């Protein structure tokens, strides 16, 4: 977490720094991002980053939290207990679509989440980054387990494999969106987001292997 003095910085300066950092991480990844470029674009001195943050990983976590708040991800957390077989995929679809649309004017706030997969192992085990990554994994795992309980997600494969499938499809879609974002309107972005969930649903639907064996 940033040092307490970061909160004493004017709100406009805080947001400018975090926005520029999100742009940098989204464009160059974690390892290749430059603290100096971020500070230059934020009109801050070279030593400012380490005055407010412990290191690059600390800045990155703060950026992720900033992006989460901007996209209002807390509003989209599914209440799995109230999810039914009938509305499961509809709610997953809405949950997936909303943050993408909310980031339409500032796509770097959407792209920066993909950088989480690039964090070095040495930094991933540190707090609060470790808790952030674990929480995300727990949410996806919980979603898969609830889908299995409702009978809308296959249970013939290990959960960790299904987890990897879901992430692979989602990451491929995110990469494609990031590369083509400037040439897409809102309708096209929604279509890609919806087709991503359709692909996941198709791969996760129970009975596919059984039907193939019977044919």
Describe this structure in words.
The chain has 215 residues and is an all-alpha fold. α9 (159-180) runs antiparallel to α10. The radius of gyration is 19 Å and the shape is globular. The longest helix is centred in the first third of the chain and has 22 residues, at 11-32. It has helices at 11-32, 35-41, 48-52, 56-70, 88-102, 108-111, 121-124, 129-150, 159-180, 186-204, 208-214. It has 11 helices and no strands. Helix content is 66%, strand content 0%.
Gist?
This protein is mainly α. The chain has helices at residues 11-32, 35-41, 48-52, 56-70, 88-102, 108-111, 121-124, 129-150, 159-180, 186-204, 208-214.
For the biggest sheet, the summary is: none
| Spatial shape | globular
Note the gap between the termini. Answer: 56 Å
Global Rg:
19 Å
Q: Which structural category do the helix and sheet elements fall into?
A: mainly alpha
Helix content: 55-70%
Pick out the low-confidence regions. Answer: 209-215
Q: Secondary-structure element sequence?
A: HHHHHHHHHHH
Mean pLDDT: 87
User: Which strand-content bin applies to the residues?
Assistant: under 5%
How many DSSP-defined strands? 0
SS element count, helices: 11
């Amino acid at each position: 977490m940033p040092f307490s003095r970061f909160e004493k910085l004017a709100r406009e300066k805080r947001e400018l720094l975090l926005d520029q950092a999100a742009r940098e991480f989204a464009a160059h990844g974690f390892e290749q991002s430059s603290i100096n470029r971020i500070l230059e674009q934020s009109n801050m001195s070279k030593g400012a980053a380490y005055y407010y943050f412990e290191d690059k990983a600390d800045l990155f976590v703060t950026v992720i939290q900033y992006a989460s708040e901007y996209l209002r991800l807390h509003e989209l957390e599914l209440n799995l207990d109230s999810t039914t077989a009938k509305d499961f995929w509809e709610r997953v679809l809405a949950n997936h679509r909303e943050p993408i649309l909310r980031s339409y004017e500032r796509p770097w706030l959407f792209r920066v989440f993909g950088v989480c997969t690039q964090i070095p192992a040495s930094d991933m085990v540190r707090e609060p980054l470790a808790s952030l990554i674990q929480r995300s994994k727990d949410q996806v795992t919980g979603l898969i387990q609830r889908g299995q309980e409702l009978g809308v997600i296959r249970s013939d494969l290990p959960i960790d494999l299904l987890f990897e499938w879901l992430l692979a499809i989602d990451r491929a879609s995110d990469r494609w969106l990031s590369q083509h974002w400037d040439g897409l309107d809102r309708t096209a972005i929604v279509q890609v987001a919806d087709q991503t969930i359709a692909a996941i649903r198709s791969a996760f639907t129970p009975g596919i292997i059984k039907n193939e064996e019977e044919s």
